[in-house]
Specification:
Number of helices: 13
Radius of gyration: 19 Å
Strand content: 5-15%
Number of strands: 8
CATH superfamily: Aldolase class I
Distance between the termini: 22 Å
Largest sheet: 8 strands, mixed
CATH architecture: Alpha-Beta Barrel
CATH topology: TIM Barrel
Number of domains: 1
Order of helices and strands: HHEHEHEHEHHEHEHHEEHHH
Length: 319
């Protein structure tokens, strides 16, 4: 039992093969208006990495392929990319779902007037990070005034029709504020609704729970507090084999700001490209990507612990 407890992810899970790629995630940059202490990319206002237009054009060409059904736009804060709207304009076509991951605060920063309305008009699904419904917890992760700005952004999105059950989807994302797993997704969703609707008049489509993976700024924070080994062991002890079939890396690729293809956004943060020849968007080969071996490591315990975790939230109902 002790030997199993300390096994690597590869020993526990075995080789993981991909499914056909249906989701293309585009990470536009590490530039962000915030410097959250859980960010696995260590994104910040001073970051320099940003996707050039030629890489965006490569993504547009790939997204025209029939097997790609969703383009998931992320960052950093993707709202800050100067060519975001041009990118979305070119991606819009029947049968292709567009989604944008937002920290909410970026939507109400100076210079962003009209962006929320544009996203509504293009029917872009929004996946909004709101690490807690309590101001003090959001402040601890994100800094002063971010909670109030997040509430302002959510109220504006509601006023535009987002999260009202009319097809404009607004999902919220919860992640723990420390070295522990998220609670049951359905229970946390009920709490968010109970706190945000009466207290702030805010509605949303779904709540997604996301486990913090011990890399980037979150790992640094764990190391400073002497909690890294304890958290890693928690993830190992909570390994759930039933989550393997739903892992996002199996039907999704992530394209970094330089065009390199990764199995997921966490592997991008760790500089672990996909295991295919010429892993770059300009050399996109669906046959190779649909039959690749996923590049895995012990950080993958983060996606397979408890009810599991992915860009789409928990992978199975909580216990």
């Amino acid at each position: 039992m002790e030997k199993r407890k300390n096994q690597s992810f590869a020993d526990r899970a075995g080789p993981i093969k991909s499914f056909p790629v249906t989701t293309l995630q585009a990470n536009l940059s590490r530039i962000c208006n915030l410097s959250c202490n859980h960010c696995h990319h260590a994104a910040s206002p001073g970051a320099k990495e940003i996707m050039p237009w030629e890489v965006m054009e490569g993504i547009i060409k790939v997204a025209e392929k029939a097997e790609i059904t969703t383009v998931d736009i992320t960052g950093g804060a993707p709202e800050l990319h100067p060519q975001l709207c041009s990118f979305i304009d070119r991606l819009c076509r029947p049968g292709l779902d567009l989604m944008l991951r937002t920290n909410l605060v970026a939507l109400v920063e100076p210079g962003q007037a009209g962006l929320a309305e544009y996203l509504r008009d293009k029917n872009v699904k929004l996946v909004a990070s709101l690490p807690c419904y309590m101001e003090e917890n959001v402040t601890a992760q994100r800094g002063d005034v971010t909670f109030n700005k997040s509430m302002t952004a959510l109220k504006k999105l509601n006023s535009l029709g987002y999260g009202k059950g009319n097809g404009l989807e607004l999902d919220l994302v919860y992640n723990p504020g420390g070295p522990f797993l998220p609670g049951r997704q359905e229970e946390l969703e009920a709490i968010y609704r109970r706190e945000l609707q009466p207290g702030h008049g805010i509605t949303f489509s779904r709540l997604l729970t996301l486990t913090n993976v011990p890399i980037g700024r979150f790992k640094d924070d764990l190391c400073r507090k002497g909690q890294l080994n304890q958290y890693l062991q928690l993830l190992r002890d909570s390994y759930n084999r039933a989550t393997l079939s739903g892992l996002m890396c199996r039907s999704q690729i992530t394209v970094g700001w330089d065009g390199i293809i990764y199995d997921c956004d966490f592997n991008l943060a760790l500089d672990l490209p996909a295991d295919v020849d010429k892993a770059h968007i300009t050399c996109f080969d669906s046959n190779k990507l649909n039959n690749r071996a996923i590049v895995a490591g012990d950080h993958c315990f983060g996606c397979t612990a408890g009810a599991g975790s992915s860009c789409a939230g928990a992978l199975e109902a909580g216990e």
